[in-house]
Every structure is written in structure tokens, then in C-alpha cells.
Amino acid sequence: MSLMLNNPKVMVKVRDEIDSYIGKPIRLIEASDLLKLQYFRCIIMEKLRLHPPTPLLVPHESSIDCTVSGFYIPKGTMLLVNTSAIHRDPKIWDKPTNFIPERFEGEKCEGNMAMPFGMDRRRCPAENLGMQMVGLALGTMIQCFEWERVGEELVDMTDGFGLTAPRAVPLEAFCKPRQSMVTLLSEI
Ligand code: HEM
User: Fold this and answer.
1) Which residues are listed for heme binding in this entry (predicted)?
2) pTM of this prediction?
């Protein structure tokens, strides 16, 4: 939400995508809609690239002696994967600190380098559930409300300290129900 408040055109584009997919009669976004909302998926992935909830994944341990990219790693070494750094590596990403959801469109190889859920055997087993929870919560907020920053200045995106990358400054924003959603919201 913060990234979209700082990039209102993205918010308008994704709201249009949701509105045109849901069509008439208006209903709330559902889990089964999420697979069809490709641009919305790109937004969530771009958020997870810029601010992965677990920036160092979880600690792993090498079960055998091995060599990775020329580095000898003895059995029993604790290994941390710095996804935050990988996700902002200028050798991989064009304008790495910019919020550009389009980089996840189609089969662009740039987008394939994001690993907010880890990789391979220890990859998050609940990736689909996680994407669904984020998609439904964020999608409903976008679909039902108009959002605005509290002032002219951009939302402060500085990361705070903590296991799951909290923000340094909690988000404050204005919101009001969208005119087209008032009736539906009053029936909930
Ligand atoms: C957007 C939401 C989520 C993100 C970004 C996320 C991310 C991650 C990451 C990065 C790991 C570590 C992978 C590794 O070390 O290679 C992980 C592991 C795990 N996650 Fe998630 N996760 C999310 C949601 C969830 C949810 C909703 C659940 C459970 C209901 C869950 C359950 C687990 C479990 C059990 C592991 C450990 C897997 C293992 O060690 O084999 N995650 N997750």
C-alpha cells in the first residue's frame, strides 16, 4: 500500500484491472480471482522484491562439504542468504531501488531472480497461501477504498529492525469508501 501511495498511477492501473475483471454486478474480490489478475500479482512480487519479509531467509546448515561459486563451505557451516542484497543487485535488476511492477510481467528473466519465499527444498511451503492472504487483504483495500497520502511528502519506506523486516515509521494514510462500493459495503 505504501509503495502504491508513492506511485498513484500504479494504484489506478491495478484498480482498473480489478474493476474490469470483476465487472457487474459488483462483488468483493475472491481468492479465485487472484490468478487472473496478472498486474496485481506483479505488484505483490515487486513489493516482496524491494521489502522481503525475511531479508536473510532462515539460517541453513550445509550437510556436506561443498563449493559454491568458488567458495569452499565445510559441512556444518551456518549459511544465511541475503535476499535483500540479491533483490537490489544492479547486475540483475534495472533501476533496482525503483518500484517497477512491470519487471515481473510475462517471462522476463529479471523477474525470475526474486526469491522472497526462498528456493528449492526449503522454499516456503505456504507460498500460495501467503500470496493469497496478501492478495485478498490488499486487493480488498484497493477495491473498496480511495487511498491518499496524509501530505505532499512521500511515505517513508525505511526498513526498521526486526526478524520480519518491519517498517521504521508505521504507515498513516487517508482512506474513504469508493462511491461505487458504498452499497455493497453497507450490506456486509
Ligand atoms: C507472504 C507471506 C510469506 C513469505 C514471504 C514467506 C517466506 C518464507 C521464507 C523466505 C522462508 C524460508 C525459506 C528458506 O529458508 O529457504 C519460509 C519458510 C517457511 N514458511 Fe513461509 N512465508 C510466507 C507465508 C507463510 C505462511 C502463511 C505459512 C504458514 C501458514 C508459512 C510457513 C512456512 C514454513 C513452515 C517454513 C519452513 C519451511 C522449511 O524450513 O522447510 N509461510 N517462508
Assistant:
1) 124
2) 0.94
